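Problem 12. The chain below contains 214 residues. Write out its predicted structure in token notation.
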Amino acid sequence: MESGETPDDNLILPLGLNNYCTVPRPSLVIVAGKYNAGKSAFCLNTVALNQERWGGYLDFYVSEGAELIKPKFAKLGITSAPCFRTWRKTEHFADVINPDNLSVIDYLRVDMEQSYAVSNKLFEIFNKLKTGIAVVAMQKPPGDRKLAFGGASTAFEPALYLGMDSNGSNTGWIGFEKIKIPRMYGGVDPYTLKIEYRIEAGVKFYDVHQKIES
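Solution.
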């Protein structure tokens, strides 16, 4: 069982994040990160952790083809035909997601000339959900911005908003930007928490540890 997970959790999150939040159904979850911060690893691990709980009601939408994605699954121990489905998809996600499934999207692209319009795409995904959950990876702009391209408007719908950043080659951290239902694990304010990690082969998190910022 992943650290922090309980039998009642609707969604199992990597890196022990269940210690600090609950994700209700339906929900939109945003994972915003810079290039090479670990967004794809987060999505892959989310799929791996939830395949038993969601089974045939789990869909993974990814821009990569099977030749690239199969070796990554193998590194997470998924070598036989999985119970979930993987789709190669790069746009119009609201048209295809099942409203009652767990949909993991790696990732939602933004038209850089109309970055403000991405909030409409997020609302369309959220509005499609009935009892399902959608986990959507998004790109963050350079600099110290905490939110994805599209800014504050991308935080309107999510029940959980996570920010990822890189500390250098194969290292990074993740923190909370918005939690609709927080858990105060160990008396720690989740908004002061950074969870630092290393990434092996672009897939596996290791050397995971917590850092509290005042």
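Discussion. The chain has a mean pLDDT of 91. Students who got a different answer should revisit the alignment rule from Section 12.3.
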